[in-house]
Amino acid sequence: MEKKILMVSTASLLSLLLASLLVLSEFSVAHSREARREQMESLQLYASYGDPGTGIGIGVRRPQLSLELPKGLEEAGVSVENDYRKRKVILHIPEAGEDYLDGHPFVGRMDHIKGIRMEDGLLELAMDGVYEVQSSVEGGWLHLDFLAPWQVYETIIVIDAGHGGSASGDTKQQVMEKDLNLSIVRRLKSLLEEDGGSIGVYYTRTEDENPSFEQRLQLAEAVRADVFLSIHCHSSGDGQMSEENGTEAMYDEEKEDGSRQLAEIFLQEVSNSLGSKANGLFPGNRDYVLRSSRVPAVSVAVGYMTNQEELDKLKTAEYQGRAAQGLYQAILRMAGSQ
Ligand SMILES: [Zn+2]
Known about the structure:
By secondary structure, the chain is of the alpha/beta class. The chain has helices at residues 2-6, 10-30, 33-38, 43-46, 98-103, 149-152, 177-195, 213-222, 259-274, 288-292, 308-314, 317-336, and strands spanning 65-68, 79-83, 88-92, 107-108, 113-119, 122-127, 132-138, 141-147, 155-161, 171-172, 175-176, 199-203, 227-234, 247-251, 278-283, 297-304. The strands form 4 sheets. The chain has a 6-stranded mixed β-sheet with strand order 12-9-13-16-14-15, sandwiched between helices.
C-alpha cells in the first residue's frame, strides 16, 4: 500500500505543484475575502494549497489533506466517518466552526474531493467515488489520506441484501423476504468484521431501505468489486406453498467473467453449511441486476419461503447464522484463490 503511494512520478508531482501554484495565484487575485464568504459551501473557502509542513520532497510520503486542529484537541476528540454509500466523509472536530476554518484552511491536495461544507457543526467532504479514508493526528494536525479500495484490499466484495424498504420481496405468513435477506447479511457482516483483514467489504444496505438497482450496481463498479453478491430467498413459480425446497445460485450465463465459478462456490458452501438440497446453478440473464452488472455477479437464493419446513427454519437465528457462515466460507475460499 505504502509502495503504491510512493510510486507517484517526479513529473506528476511537479505538475501538481505547478497546478497548485497557478490555482493559488489566480485565487488570491480573483477572490476577495468577501467573495469567498459568499461561497460558504464551496471547496475554496476551507482549502488552500500550501504545504502542511509535514515533509516536502520527492519520496517523502505526504498526506493528501491536513488540518491544524484547535489547540489542545487530541486524537480521541476527533471522529472521521466514511459514508461510502453517499460518497461522503464526515469529520467531527469540536470547535472547528466556519470562523476557525476561515483562519485555518485545509492544506494539501483536493484529489477526489468535490466539495467541503459545514452541516450542523460537522464538516462534510463530498467525494467523487468510494475511498478508504486513513486518518491520523500528529503534532496537532489531522492528516487524511484517501485510497482507492483496490490500493488497500486484495479482494473486494459488494454484498447486497435483496429488496428493502417499500420493496418487500416475497411475503409468506407475515414473513417478508427483505427482512430475511437483511438479517442474513447482518450476520455475515459480523463474521467478516471479526476477521477484519485483507478483504474489502461494502454493503448496498445495512438497514431497511431500498437503494435503486443502479445505486447497488454503481457501488460494485465504484469499488471494482471482484463479486457483487446478492442475497435472496426463493418462492415457487406460482407463489403457492409446495414441496419445492433447497438452495440455488444464479449468474448471467451469457458472461464469461468468472461469475459461474463464483456461483458454484457460493452454492456449495451455503448448502453445505445449511444442510439444504443444492438445486444447482440457474441462468440469470433475465435478471436485470445480474445482466447489468459490470463486475462478476452472483445471486444466492438461500431457501424457499413457499416450503413450510424451510420457511420455519429461515425465520430462526440459527438457520440465518448458518447461511451467513456458508457465505462467509465461500468468501474466504474465493479470496484464497485470487
Ligand atoms: Zn428476492
